[in-house]
Every structure is written in C-alpha cells, then in structure tokens.
Amino acid sequence: MARLRARGLAVILGALAWAGGCAGPAAANGQPAAAAAAPAPMPPPDPVSARVEAPPRLWPFKHIFGADYVDVAAIAGRYDLKPAWVTSGRTLQLTDAQGRVRLKFEDRNRDFYLDGVRIFMGEPTVGYQGGLWVSKIDVIKTIAPLMRPDEPAGLLPPPPRLIVLDPGHGGNDPGNQNPRLHLNEKDMTLDVVLRLRKLLEARGYRVLLTRSEDRRVDLDERDVIADRAKADLFLSVHFNALPAAIAQRVSGTETYVMTPQFQASTEVEQDRSMIPTRYPGNRNDPANILFGFALHRQVLRHLASSDRGLKRRRLAVLRMLDCPGALIEAAFLSNDAEARRVATPEFRQQIADAIADGVDAYAALLAAAHPAAIRPAPLPSP
User: Fold this and answer.
1) Confidence (pTM)
2) What domains lie within the chain, and their CATH numbers?
C-alpha cells in the first residue's frame, strides 16, 4: 500500500510540474510525422535534474517550434565525425575517419541509427536552416551516453555483480500464445531465463530470478524483488505478438528501456501525466540506454533477426527500479516462421547466449568508464 501511495504521489507531483504545458512526439510507433506537423512544445528539464544529468560540456542549442534542438552538425563536431547528405535535406549520415557510418538521421523520423542499430528518440528530427536538428533531451539522454560512455562516468554504476532475471508471465497468465504451435510465452521465457542463469553464473555474476517455476508473480512485485535484493541490473524476458491480420508479416527483436522524464514513449502514453513525472527508474537513464543498446546489438547479431528497434516505455517493471534495467521482446510468437524457431531448444539457447554477451558488453562499457572497477571473479564450480 505504501508503494502504491508513493507511485500516486510521484504522478501528482509530476502533473503539478507539468501544469500549463504539454509534450509528446509528433508521431507514434516509429512512424514519421505528417509533413505539416511540428514537435509539440516541451517544458525545460527541472533545474535539479538538469544540473545533475547534463554532460560536462554544454551543447549549443536553438529554440525551434517551442523546444530546444541541437544541430546534427554540432553532434558531428563533438565526436569528430564528417556529415554528408545521403538525400539532400532529408537523410544525413555521419562517418568517422575510416569512412564508417556511425550515425544516420532522417528528417521527421523518431528513429536514428548508431553503427547500424535502430534507436528511437523521444522527438522526431527537424529540418531547419538547411540542416537537421535533434531535440536537446534526446542528445543528452540518448546520443551522448552512447557515443561517449566515459563522459557521464560519475552517473554510471560500476559493472554489475547481482543480476535479477524476470521470466515474463507465469501461472494462470500464459502471456502471448501461438495456438497452432501450442506455444505459451510463459514457458518460453522461463526456459530462456533458466539457460541464461547458467551462462551468467559461469561468467562470475550472481543471479536471482523473480520466478523459477510456472507460477504467477504480480506485475508490480517484479521490480520490488530486484529493489529488495539491491540488484545491480534487471532484465525482463518476453516474446511478442501482433493481431492475426498482420501477424505473419512482422518478426524481429525489440528492446525497451525506461523513457526519460519530459519525453513521450515510443508508444505514446494514454496517461499524459506520466510524461513529466520523474520516476526512480530515471535515476539510471545513462546506464539504461547503455544496457539497452549493448543487449539489443548482441541479440541482433546472434539471432540475425529483424531490427525492430531499441525503444522507450514507462513499463511497470522499469518505472520503480533502483538499478538499470531493460525488457526484451526476443521474437514474435504470432509469426509462425519465427515461432517455429522459438519452439526449438537450440534457438532458445541462442537467445540466452546473445543476452549473456549483451550483459558482458554492458559490463565492459562500465568497466571502461570506471577504470578502477574489478570484474567479479567466476564462481567456483559446484
């Protein structure tokens, strides 16, 4: 009950901070905004979080359509990249000294690409004065931590030791299903997590599960388990589904991390009061995006699946976390071809291997940002 009261208070305080303004992307679900639409005005970040979370060097910005935006040319200059138009006035890519495309932006799109990986922002890019512009919050909360993880080092935790794994659904909640192949999401998530636990323990991590058998765990208890255990990292494993009319046309992997304060999620919230609210999960914004990116990239590489994007949502299991966290939708059970792969133990082992490598990649990023950090020693063999 105290926890519910705290959540309610957070929403009320956020709504008061939001009074008189509204924010949100010009489009939802990754679709480009209409040509005539401009991003809705956004209030400035609250002074406390701005002082704590801004990168050490300030970004030059311009007030456009009621919000603060950064020129992509300034992003290129900060990271020693060369901007070049792919399509004049529409698509701009930034390459390094070796000619590799590091970043790619497209006018009026909410997604961009970093090293070929699709990432969703809170606001679409804006064409202005012959260039492309990205919202200042997206630069601070997404692009800067990914490009230079060492810059917000004081905001990043040390490499994880205790990891809480959360197999989605369970008990009388089967999750998504494929009746033709007799697949229940709750069974597939548990199998992947049990495999993943063995891999992570062999690599020296301590692992705690929200459930280790087919039983129901209430949605608002899963993050509580991680917080009580003082976990260093949280991961919820799921499988996706879409309505039958489009199910066979869509496959691939999606990864979700917590939406930053003052931004709309990739799938825009019905409850708009959530947008200005600063949740506990926002304390780890830089680490959240690093973990999500490391995880998403490794899963794409291992599974060779379609890139549905690294996305943002204020999910119940992420909002109140005290540690960095992510939720992965590894594949689509509604797509028969992909579901047949999920039905095989070999593919589920591939998913577990990919996630384990994602955790290791994330830990390596943190270790580089904390040179004095020591990786946990492997646990002794039983």
Assistant:
1) 0.84
2) 2-148 (3.30.457.10), 154-369 (3.40.630.40)
